[in-house]
């Protein structure tokens, strides 16, 4: 019998907890079915009553999806995982069933644009009070968290400023002051290979699996990982009733396939990103580079202690909005597209794209501007990425 817990990361992502399947199939079978046949009426009744854990209906569970959920729970070190049909499905399906009118939430002010919009507009419409702060500043955390705070929410490597928050410090403080407080961390940019937030005291980890976990730009998906009681609520209320955002078995299969190469992809991407970030620091028309692996990054010390590697996401500021646009319009290799974590290097302009729902003031508060470009370093040779950026900088400066 394998001792899965002691395996190295490269082994864990390949094997997970299901090295073999029905009929000896090495690859996970795709159970392309909406419903499951009961042998008897009693068996069906027992499944609904929770006395028999066989499958019922694919919104409540599917064997291909379940295998993926178990692998993600294993990689994040959680008791359970719920798969969703998008990262936003996972975030909504996690936050909504665990909060109610009158609850208080504290969120970091640098978040993916749609998450920010959900927390800033939708939750207050349901009577939930949300305070946005800089979770990287413990004085602000101490001022914001109250005994009745029910949730603290932030991203491990924040989109798009690449801020790195001390998960343990925030979780320890929040749990000390607010007994019922759930610390929820979006670990999309870091992946469980760079940090496992649950091991540092977070209660729930959410993911857009659309990014590195799948890694090939052909699936939209999300996960929520936590302890068993919270997973039960997220599955039976957040997924089953509120969102219905069920992941399909084909997508689950593709993510299971993508996960097998997560370690080699992240190793290559992180090494490439470091080279590209160093080049950007020397580019004369680049005013600022945000990459947690550079000593110039304001959270370099936290990043060094918390992350095993510094990730594949870099942001950088040009001299003006016009120059930033010209750079984007002069690239030949880097692909002008939102999303991230794919084999191809993707580049985009947060202020007019992923964060276009934020006002100028909210963008400034989040620590960036319309001069900022966000780069998701892919698996190409970093020399080619650098050559493409370099010629685009020259063209934009003309
Ligand atoms: C950090 C982060 N969280 C969540 C999401 C939402 O994920 P999805 O697009 O899969 O719904 C994104 C999307 O870009 C993201 O960057």
Give a description of the structure:
It is a single chain. 41% of the residues lie in helices and 14% in strands. It has 398 residues and is α/β, with parallel strands linked by helices. The chain folds into two domains: 4-30 and 61-259, Type I PLP-dependent aspartate aminotransferase-like (Major domain) (Aspartate Aminotransferase, domain 2, 3-Layer(aba) Sandwich); 263-397, Aspartate Aminotransferase, domain 1 (Alpha-Beta Complex). The strands form two sheets. A seven-stranded mixed beta sheet has the order 1-7-6-5-4-2-3, with helices on both faces. A five-stranded mixed beta sheet has the order 8-9-12-11-10. The longest helix is centred in the last third of the chain and has 21 residues, at 262-282. The mean pLDDT is 96. Pyridoxal-5'-phosphate (PLP) binds at residues 86-88, 112, 115, 155, 159, 186, 188-189, 208, 210, 220, 222.
